[in-house]
Known about the structure:
Layout (H helix, E strand, L loop, with lengths): L9 H12 L2 H13 L3 H29 L3 H8 L6 H33 L10 H9 L4 H18 L2 H28 L5 H8 L8 H14 L6 H7 L7 H29 L7 H15 L3 H34 L4 H21 L14 H28 L2 H8 L9 H27 L1
Helix pairs in contact: 1-8, 1-11, 1-12, 1-14, 2-10, 2-12, 3-4, 3-10, 3-11, 3-12, 3-16, 3-18, 4-5, 5-7, 5-14, 5-15, 5-16, 6-13, 7-8, 7-14, 7-15, 8-12, 8-14, 9-12, 11-14, 13-14, 14-15, 16-18
This protein binds tryptophan (TRP).
The site of tryptophan has 17 residues, from helix 1, helix 2, helix 10 and helix 14.
Amino acid sequence: xxxxxxxxxxxxxxxxxxxxxxxxxxxxxxxxxxxxxxxxxxxxxxxxxxxxxxxxxxxxxxxxxxxxxxxxxxxxxxxxxxxxxxxxxxxxxxxxxxxxxxxxxxxxxxxxxxxxxxxxxxxxxxxxxxxxxxxxxxxxxxxxxxxxxxxxxxxxxxxxxxxxxxxxxxxxxxxxxxxxxxxxxxxxxxxxxxxxxxxxxxxxxxxxxxxxxxxxxxxxxxxxxxxxxxxxxxxxxxxxxxxxxxxxxxxxxxxxxxxxxxxxxxxxxxxxxxxxxxxxxxxxxxxxxxxxxxxxxxxxxxxxxxxxxxxxxxxxxxxxxxxxxxxxxxxxxxxxxxxxxxxxxxxxxxxxxxxxxxxxxxxxxxxxxxxxxxxxxxxxxxxxxxxxxxxxxxxxxxxxxxxxxxxxxxxxxxxxxxxxxxxxxxxxxxxxxxxxxxxxxxxxxx
Length: 446
Ligand code: TRP
């Protein structure tokens, strides 16, 4: 297709990819994982694993998108005509619905808390923030209202397209997000008693490192770099030919990791300064932190900045997830982008409502022992995304020609990259990555 949309500049593409990578995973999971897995020891392991394992997987996904310049399904079809590999692309286009069903519910929560902060409702030190959270999320109307608002905002950005929507939006939002989180970090680190939080994050304790640490690090890096659901494949398919593959992926991974560390420096010192034991996930963001904000000077200001940051980090990720099925539908069924967005959002509205209500009204509905929220979370991370990642590396390592892969990595020789590195990456994709992804998959399932 000649009129295929594309990112306007390499920098814009990079910011959008960083926007996809930087999300809730960086804010509410990474800091806790670091602290409980040996601090700096974990950070070192995380970085080494990204360099040797996750980046080659990232390259694989990226290459498939960039060579084919097509949606997830068409990409595999183009590279392996008359084969069944297109199924991987379909799998990749299904996971976004599962992920967005709960990710957008949380996005809605962040909007609600932002509103609460702005309207000075997070100021009372004696409030029961745990009960406040439970009451809110188990409600029938409010969480749905904010879910709809959040979905609408996603639809608005994605409808405007790649260059005029996602790229423009990310270019405004990402700097703002980074500045806000830096500001929170500086303030957090200057609170009395903040040192314990920094120690939690950075004191290297190799005795806490177990085999589990390695798996946790790899799993986190996959989620954080948005791998396994066609996000990076789809974004790469919109990136212009002249952008270099290897540096783009490396910059994205670097930005993502630095931001995750920064988020840790914003959150943990404050948590420790108030003598609270660290945690992760919704409990950290919507219960612990509001409690802390309510106890500190200028709490409302920081609560506002913080929930705004959570919202921005989430939306630049969820638009990237939404773009996967949107590109798929608009190209395969030759319909307008706007219609494709409407179709996807209609589905996610329904599944999102179910997820949201599973915190209250539908709490008793359990499938495979999980409520719907957890089921969507579990099946996307542990079944769909791992399967897609596994099949993608097998495809790149075993189905594509070695020359095609190595040429693409060096942009057909235009970018000078050490041939030893390229060969190393290729064999990692072929032999090591499938084994590692398979191990993660098996561990996730049992
Ligand atoms: N990386 C994002 C985060 O850290 C989430 C995300 C965006 C994602 N796109 C994805 C996760 C694709 C898995 C697959 O929150």
